[in-house]
């Protein structure tokens, strides 16, 4: 069987797919690729089904070796990539000869990259998905040097294009569209206008669960306790610190703090590429 | 019934009480409206998670209003018996808060038939409702950083069992060896919404 040997991982590399929807009733969230657009593209480039499992690399640094000839593609945050020391292009179909080492550098913009291999990463699924949910502790362990990942049988379809044109990840201030609610009525009028007129910065206290943001306080007008309620990805939850947390793929199924606004689904991939220190503006 | 939108990703339905949540959850589980990918029941709300490419929110709202709430909740009527050693670190505190003796706390906890109202917090954690009103206690003022797996606790009107070691603020009254969550078992969660639960004291 073809395999990918993990030699180095960078800060965090996990196996992801499109997650495990439908299990919230037993406390299991969806999880899956944080930037699902980039993830799907990586699979399409190598001719996989869009939901085949691939590697999500956080801030570059992944080094792997192919045990047999592989077809691969790198999307998302544009890491410099070399195959046996030779430069290769992101968003393109890469032919990796048996024994070759694929090395990702640190991306100069964006945060999460996807390395898909033709056939998909074939680790054992857990509850119907190969996604690693870092909050719930479900799915495969995060990658570690020395691990060997099996690759599935090649799909019938062949790669259709060699290179995909992709807009660059923004490296300055990013704008995310939000819709107020479901609990905007728990906040002062000032808080609502502050959210959409100020700049927030992504802090280092950010991961696949969510991004803690620094910036002006969002004051509440109601101070009673909110019974825990279901959460969606993109929710801007405001804990007692009065600074928002933007929930990403591994967000908790339920939460007990009010959500002032939610980022629209089409902008979630952009949010997942925001790196610590990057500034965000919210627009309603 | 009040509808609160979560941008294009969700529709939060606010209901009068837990019974109404369970009845709507049961009814919608049978035939979720087109575009609904998951249902998240909680104490007073049911969240419909949506696939924004397929969901027509106005049509979904209409479908939810039209649905006949179902009184018999899911969980195939299963009954789970949970053996508990009642030696929890907060048993004395719960007795003090409720004005009961520790023995009375245990008796009340074991004589009730609880029902899993909803999940959340962690995989396999079930919020158990239907307990006696005397056992309603606040959460601990300070959360523990580590609660051992199998801990049985109380918070608000709910009881619950920690599926794995995690932080937690519930009042701990006992522990069980029963594994309420195993991913290699089908179903992985013993405590699914609608399942009935009885606690049994073991020494």
TrEMBL record, chain A:
The answer to whether UniProt assigns keyword Glycosyltransferase to this entry is no
According to the lineage, what is the superkingdom? Answer: Bacteria
| Keyword Transferase carried by entry | no
Q: Which UniProt keywords apply?
A: ATP-binding, Hydrolase, Nucleotide-binding
| Pfam short name (any one) | CT_A_B
What name appears for this protein in its UniProt entry? Biotin-dependent carboxylase-like uncharacterized protein
Recorded hits in InterPro entries, A to Z, give: CT_A_B, Cyclophilin-like_dom_sf, PxpC
Residue span, Carboxyltransferase domain: 25-284
GO MF term set: ATP binding; hydrolase activity
TrEMBL record, chain B:
Q: What one GO molecular function would you report for this record?
A: hydrolase activity
Name the source's superkingdom. Answer: Bacteria
| UniProt keyword annotations, A-Z | ATP-binding, Hydrolase, Nucleotide-binding
The chain positions of domain Carboxyltransferase read 1-191
The record's Pfam families line, in alphabetical order, gives: CT_C_D
What are the transmembrane regions? none
What name goes with this protein?
Answer: KipI family sensor histidine kinase inhibitor
Q: Which organism is it from?
A: Saccharopolyspora hordei
From the broadest rank down, the organism's phylogenetic lineage runs:
Bacteria, Bacillati, Actinomycetota, Actinomycetes, Pseudonocardiales
């Amino acid at each position: 069987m073809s395999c990918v040997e993990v030699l180095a991982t960078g800060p965090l590399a996990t196996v992801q797919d499109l997650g495990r929807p439908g299990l919230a009733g037993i406390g299991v969230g969806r999880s899956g690729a944080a930037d699902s657009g980039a993830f799907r593209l990586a699979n399409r480039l190598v001719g996989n089904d869009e939901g085949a499992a691939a590697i999500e690399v956080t801030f570059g640094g992944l080094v792997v070796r192919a045990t047999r000839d592989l077809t691969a593609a790198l999307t998302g945050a544009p890491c410099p990539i070399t195959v046996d020391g030779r430069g290769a292009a992101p968003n393109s179909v890469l032919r990796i000869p048996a024994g070759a080492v694929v090395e990702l550098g640190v991306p100069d913009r964006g945060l999460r990259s996807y390395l898909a291999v033709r056939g998909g990463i074939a680790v054992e699924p857990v509850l119907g998905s190969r996604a690693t949910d870092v909050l719930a502790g479900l799915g495969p362990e995060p990658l570690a040097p020395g691990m060997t990942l099996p690759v599935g049988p090649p799909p019938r379809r062949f790669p259709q294009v060699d290179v995909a044109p992709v807009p660059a990840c923004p490296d300055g201030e990013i704008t995310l569209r939000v819709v107020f609610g479901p609990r905007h009525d728990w906040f002062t009028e000032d808080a609502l206008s502050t959210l959409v007129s100020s700049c927030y910065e992504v802090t280092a206290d950010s991961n696949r669960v969510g991004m803690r943001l620094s910036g002006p306080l969002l004051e509440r007008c109601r101070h009673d306790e909110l019974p825990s309620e279901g959460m969606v990805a993109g929710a801007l939850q405001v804990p007692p610190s009065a600074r928002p947390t933007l929930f990403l793929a591994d967000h908790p199924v339920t939460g007990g703090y009010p959500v002032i606004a939610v980022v629209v689904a089409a902008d979630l991939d952009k949010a997942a590429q925001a790196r610590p220190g990057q500034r965000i503006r919210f627009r309603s | 019934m009040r509808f609160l939108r979560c941008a294009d990703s969700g529709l939060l339905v606010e209901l009068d009480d837990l019974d109404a949540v369970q009845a709507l959850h049961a009814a919608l589980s049978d035939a979720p409206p087109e575009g609904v990918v998951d249902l998240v029941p909680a104490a007073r709300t049911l969240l419909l998670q949506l696939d924004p490419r397929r969901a027509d929110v106005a049509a979904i709202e209409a479908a939810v209003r039209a649905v006949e709430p179902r009184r018999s909740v899911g969980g195939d009527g299963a009954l789970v018996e949970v053996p508990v050693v009642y030696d929890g670190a907060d048993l004395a505190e719960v007795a003090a808060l409720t004005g009961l003796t520790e023995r009375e706390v245990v008796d009340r906890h074991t004589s009730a038939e609880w029902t899993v109202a909803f999940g959340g917090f962690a995989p396999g954690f079930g919020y158990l409702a239907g307990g006696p009103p005397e056992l309603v206690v606040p959460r601990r003022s300070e959360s523990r950083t580590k609660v051992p797996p199998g801990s049985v606790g109380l918070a608000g009107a709910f009881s619950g069992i920690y599926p794995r070691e995690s932080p937690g603020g519930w009042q701990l009254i006992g522990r069980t060896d029963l594994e309420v969550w195993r991913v290699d078992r089908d179903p992985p969660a013993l405590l699914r919404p609608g399942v009935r639960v009885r606690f049994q004291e073991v020494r």
